[in-house]
Amino acid sequence: MVMLLGQRLPLHIVLLYPGFIYTAAIAVSQMKLRSWAEPFAVGLAVVLLDIPYDIMGIKLLWWTWHDDDPNIYDRHYWVPWTSYYFHAAFASSFTFIFNHSRRLLCQSTGKFQSSGCIIETICAVITGLFSMPLGVLQFVPIYHYFHDQLNIHTEVCLLLLLATYVMIVWSSDRVPYLNARIGGVSKRSILELIMIVLFHYSLYIYLVITEKPQYIQSTGYHQSIGSCTEKVPVKTPFGQVLSKRKHLCLLNYDEDVFNFKCLDKRPANGAEWYTICGTPYPNHLEYIIVVTAFCVFGLFFYFQAMLRSGHLSPTKAAKVKHHKE
User: pTM for the complete prediction?
Assistant: First the structure.
């Protein structure tokens, strides 16, 4: 698993994103949010799943990031802030396109009931075609303008995006929405997802406590070793042309999560398949607190969403229905 994640194989696309988005979408569907707010809640929920995964993944050398790419240069525990931005933007876009295409085309009364192979395939194709462009559009007004044009730190851009999501979700959550198409998720399915979420967060708590990254070696397909001066252009939507090194410069790179001290000889120029060495935690207790805190918060959110917001009492349901009418 570690070896494969270090290579340029789309395992994160094949395995990770469907698991994150499906789990988040089912959990959020139980919250009775209005249709325009639900995608943003899914985006927030996916970020909660991703944070411990990203922090531990980069520290344990499951992958590496380009050390001077301007779009991923600003880091949080060596995780690019744009990684969280990406998960929020594209998960919300995927959910928005998927849910609304099914609302328009599917005739089933239940949200999770199939309308047949042909209709569901059409919805899947529409989602595949338009969710990526919609996700890209979310980067333009906040990230690319503030970061690229005004030199605002990426952390600020991400917090502005997440704050916007929170306000949208909260404004919908004040009045529970009785949508007849929401039903269809069995208690058994909810319990299965709770077990998945529990395993997910427990894994990272276990890893951050027990793993010793200074003894890890990752052999795989990495950024090529080469010139410290050769640059490649990075174009922005507003016409700016930024730059990054084409190769990993062994004399001057900014990655505290790996080095080459465990090797007798450093990789040669032009090498793409080579071994990197893990580094110790700068403050192990801090990592434990940070990762565990995010895991506990994530568990709390998913517990509340799946088990404590799925149903309204008959009296309250009648009041809300009357309020809608």
Answer: 0.88
Among residues 71, 91, 78, 93, the alpha carbon closest in space to that of 157 is found at: 71
The count of residues in the chain is 325
- Name residues whose C-beta falls within 8 Å of residue 252's C-beta, 6 or more positions apart in sequence: 228
C-alpha to C-alpha distance for 139 and 158, rounded to whole angstroms: 10
Share of the chain above pLDDT 90, in %: 67
57 contacts: CB under 8 Å, gap ≥ 6: 5, 63
Burial label, 195 (beta-carbon count in 10 A; 0-12, 13-18, 19+): exposed
C-alpha 154/C-alpha 149 separation (Å) is 12
In whole angstroms, what is the distance from residue 78 CA to residue 47 CA?
Answer: 16
- Report d(CA 150, CA 205) in Å as an integer: 38
What does the angle CA 11 – CA 17 – CA 22 come to, to the nearest 5 degrees? 135
Res 240: pLDDT? 85
Which residue bears the tokens 């991923």? 72
pLDDT tens figures, 303-324: 999 888 755 554 544 554 544 4
Distance CA 208, CA 198 (A): 16
Residue 170: other Cβ atoms inside 10 A = 12
81 with 157: CB under 8 angstroms? yes
Write the pLDDT tens digit of every residue in 271-304.
999 999 999 999 999 999 999 999 999 999 999 9
Label each residue of 70-104 as H, E or C.
CCCCCEECCEEHHHHHHHHHHHHHHHHHHHHHHHH
